Amino acid sequence: MTMTRYHLEPQTGTGFLLERGRTLKIIDPRGEQVSDLTAFAQDDTREWLSSGRSIDYANTIYLTAGHTLYSNRSRPMFTIVEDTVGRHDFLLTPCSRDTFRLLYDFHDYHPSCFENLSKGLAPFGVEPDAIPTTFNVFMNVRVLPSGELRIDPPPSRPGDYIALRAEMDLIVGVTACSAEKSNNYSFKPIDVEVY
Ligand SMILES: [Zn+2]
Hints:
- The protein is mostly beta strands.
- It has 3 helices and 13 strands.
């Protein structure tokens, strides 16, 4: 039973409350589109979704169905219950104006996940500086033997999804990513459903 749906237009994002026990489904309707996800505890926004804790406890950088995503206080925030893709990134920060400036020498305005998360989370009292490394759904980052990172097009095809069960009451931010390279140079929407 779907309780709520959000349709994210290309290069946008949103924030909302997600109660414990509900399932968040992030769907790539057209394929090859990344969606950045972050979360904070509703009762104390100093507790946030931690890349470091989650990777540490899973002992892998490739988190998929069966894995738990932890907070900075080592409490479970999400359990990944379904995953039709099996490739997501939890190493890299949400794209931002500074990302485009430093990596691509692009100095004009550029939409970004960081800006979209900042706007989406502001109504819930989350400051931009509090936004951590995001769980970058469908983002295809590989680590070469040298340690160098390689970003390839997302492997997601139309209709692919990941479903995460909330393990505490959460404030959630989610985007349709704005970075050219991460999305194979075309921007598509993202659909979000809450069950
Ligand atoms: Zn992005």
